[in-house]
Amino acid sequence: MDTIEAIKSRRAINFFDPARTIPREKINEIITIAGMAPSSFNLQPWEVVVVTDIDRKEILKKCASNQPKVAEAPAVLIVIANPGGLEANLDRVIDNMADLGYLKPEDRDKTKKGPLTQYHSRESIERKFWAIKNTSFFAMNFMIAAKGLGYETHPMDGFSQELVKKEFHIPEDRFIPLLIALGYPREGLKLLPPKFRMDIVDFVKYEDYGG
Ligand SMILES: Cc1cc2nc3c(=O)[nH]c(=O)nc-3n(C[C@H](O)[C@H](O)[C@H](O)COP(=O)(O)O)c2cc1C
Q1: Each residue of 136-151: pLDDT tens digit?
Q2: Which of 15, 52, 109, 161 is the most buried if burial means most Cβ atoms within 10 Å?
Q3: What distance in Å separates the CA atoms of residue 15 and residue 70, rounded to the nearest whole number?
Q4: Is residue 203 a part of any domain in this protein?
C-alpha cells in the first residue's frame, strides 16, 4: 500500500478479531519502521511496552476505562515519552553523527552541550513537552506503518497514567501519551463512514496568524 493510501484509509478500529495473533517479529518490524520517525537532534526519547499476554491485557483494560478493544486486540502498545531520553541517548547520537561525518570529531563535546541547553532541565515542563512531541511522531508512524502492512490500529488516551505506570512498572518520570491497539478487524466488521475533517480554511493561515 502506498503512503498516501495508508494515511487516507487508516481508521481507529473499535472491534478487533480476538482470535488472530500477530507474531512478535511482525510487531517488532512495525516498531522498527515507526522508529524511523524524525526527532529533535535524533534523540528518540520514546519507549514502548508491548502487551500481548491475555492476563496482562485484562489488567491494561482495567486501567483504560474497560475499553474492550484493549483485551481484544492481539497487541497493545503502551507508548512512553521519556524526558530523560536526552541524557540517555546523547552520547551515541552525537558519536554516530561524528562517525558519519555530520560533524568534526573534535566538535563532539561542544555539540553535546547544545541539546542540554536547548531542551531545558530534565525535570522541566518544557522537557516533558519535548519528549511527548517527539514520541507522538513515533506513534503516528507506527499507525501508518501498521496500516501499510495490512493491520489496523486504535489510539487511546482514555486510561489512567497512574494505574498504567503502577501495573506495568513504568518509572514515575515518564509520561504515556497514548496506548495503541494493533490487530485485525473483527470478521464482517462494517465501518461507519470516515468522520469529518476540518476544511483547511478552518485552520490554515498563510504568512501570519492575524492576531
Ligand atoms: C491521542 C488519541 C487518543 C484517543 N483516545 C481514544 C480513546 O481512549 N478511546 C476511543 O475510543 N478512541 C480514542 N481515540 C480515537 C479518536 O476518537 C479517533 O481517532 C477520531 O475520532 C478520528 O477517527 P479515525 O481515527 O477513525 O479517523 C483517540 C485518538 C487519539 C489520536
Answers
A1: 999 999 999 999 999 9
A2: 15
A3: 10
A4: no
**Pocket-forming residues, ligand 1, beta carbon under 6 Å:** 11-12, 67, 155-158, 178, 194-195
Domain presence at residue 192:
no
The structure's pTM equals: 0.96
Integer angstrom CA distances of residue 22 from 7, 19, 74, 119: 21, 10, 6, 38
Cα-to-centroid distance, 144 and ligand 1 (Å): 14
- What does the buried/exposed string (b/e) look like for 38-60 if buried means 16 or more CB atoms within 10 Å of the residue's CB? ebbbebbbbbbbbbeeeebbebb
Nearest CA to ligand 1 atom 23: 12
- We report the CATH number of the domain holding residue 60 as 3.40.109.10
pLDDT in tens, 112-140: 999 999 999 999 999 999 999 999 999 99
Q: Scanning the structure block, which residue is given the C-alpha cell 470516515?
A: 194
Q: Is residue 93 in some structural domain?
A: no
* Structural domain count of the chain: 1
- Grid cell at residue 204: 490554515
